[in-house]
Amino acid sequence: MLKLTAFIASIPLIIGVNAANAAILGADAAACQKGGQKPAILVHVEGLKNRSGTLRVQAYDADQKVYFEKGKYLTRVETPLPQEGNIDVCLTVPKAGDYTVLVRHKNGDTDREDGGGFSGNPSMSLMDVALKHKPPLKASTITVGNGVLDIKIIMKYIQGLSFKPIASLDDKKNSEGAR
């Protein structure tokens, strides 16, 4: 049994697939593989409401005049959401420096059903969303060196009168059990 387990574990190596990197989305996914030497951002997206719709991930210069401005992104990946597994998206950037990242989950026919997230995971109110305010530049700026920077973006959705992360299933079970 031990030999069979070792053989199954080695299959990705035999066929030339690295399972850890197989789930990275985007045309530049190879740039985010372990040991990458070019400036890139590996965005780990967490807290999706569901797996329907599309995901758009964009990198911007961390410049007050252009960050999160429509059409001013440096690089963009738009993809249907995979039905399972981690959501990791690779964005290459032109050089080492300061950037911001925006993630949008286009989830339905109206913007109210969509989710969003920013590098640095700054807090935003429903009023900020309604008035289309950007998060503060300082709170959403990341610094990319001459390799791959891993960041985590936690998605937020409109819930009642709030714009916040979806509660995990464990949180929901615990709150239901407390009633």
Question: Could you explain the architecture of this structure?
Answer:
- With 179 residues, the chain is of the alpha+beta class.
- The chain is 20% helix and 34% strand.
- The protein is built from five helices and eleven strands, in the order ααβββββββααββββα.
- The chain has helices at residues 2-14, 19-22, 126-130, 137-140, 169-177; strands spanning 24-25, 40-46, 54-61, 75-80, 87-92, 97-106, 115-118, 142-144, 148-154, 156-159, 162-164.
- The strands form two sheets. Strands 3, 4, 6, 7, 8, 10 and 11 form a seven-stranded antiparallel β-sheet that branches. Strands 1-5-2-9 form a four-stranded mixed β-sheet.
- The longest helix has 13 residues, at 2-14.
- It is globular, with a radius of gyration of 18 Å.
- The termini are far apart.
- The model is unreliable at 1-22 and 168-179 (pLDDT under 50).
Q: Termini distance?
A: 47 Å
- Into which percent range does the helicity of residues fall? 10-25%
The oligomeric status of these chains comes to single chain
Instruction: Provide mean pLDDT, rounded.
Output: 83
Largest sheet: 7 strands, antiparallel
Number of strands: 11
Beta-strand residue fraction:
25-35%
Q: What's the Cα radius of gyration?
A: 18 Å
Q: Flag low-confidence runs.
A: 1-22, 168-179
The structural class is alpha+beta
| Number of contiguous helices | 5
Order of helices and strands: HHEEEEEEEHHEEEEH
Overall geometry: globular
